[in-house]
């Protein structure tokens, strides 16, 4: 777990070597320690940069893939939130046609649009789910190694419980994403594309209409398609946003929520965890950015970047990975 101060001198440090064999295949030991979390020169919600300490933990080398999630569903019979008809009492003001299974899908406009309205490129689509990432008619053919998307908070929590794991805290996630490069802008250093080399799956071109796909991928990529960071972790930047376990709170007023479309069924978003008001939808913190982050809009393909997202909403660019903490 994390604390918001540097560890005292008497604190027993996490072992630099793993305390035993990995608890699951393709998990990597992160030794823990103190680091500078956040950034003072990024988006407002990233500030202030502060010293944080985390204990050692295991983390998935890769984002959870469609193949891994399919195994979970096959063994448990689990049905994701996007595949279930919502409770009308949860969304009392929703139009009837929205009270059916579905999720939020990226739909590129035909040309330039104003960037102050993300509904110009996000569309709630009946029938969209992890099995049908672009909506009815789309499939997972050829995408077994792509990160699973369209998973809401309760879906990832259920998967983690099945796997005997947990979802990382925001601090654990950022510490792991930095790969030992404390304070660097990106997971690999301070230059986005050194010598023109694409080191993560993000948007090249003028978002949201011109996708040059210079990195080789228009949307998600198979996990591990880009070089790992210093801890041997893949896709900590770009590809798919990742859920963290922390409730989202603004350190300062957040910038435009470019990457986190609201559920069109309604409900006011809040960081509150009080379930007394069914119209309030709490938010968790997302990290890492995605294939839909661009230089001209939403430059959140950085370890310090963060975004609040409603726990009842999946999208075509949000996935996750798991951690295991010794003794838990």
UniProtKB/TrEMBL annotation:
It holds the Pfam family FGE-sulfatase. It comes from the Bacteria. PANTHER family: FORMYLGLYCINE-GENERATING ENZYME, SULFATASE MODIFYING FACTOR 1, 2. The lineage of its organism: Bacteria, Pseudomonadati, Thermomicrobiota, Thermomicrobia, Thermomicrobiales. This is Sulfatase modifying factor 1 (C-alpha-formyglycine- generating enzyme 1). Residues 1-25 are annotated as: Disordered. GO terms for molecular function: formylglycine-generating oxidase activity. InterPro entries: CTDL_fold, Sulfatase_Mod_Factor_Kinase, SUMF_dom, SUMF_sf. Residues 1-15 have a biased composition (Low complexity). Residues 24-323 form the Sulfatase-modifying factor enzyme-like domain.
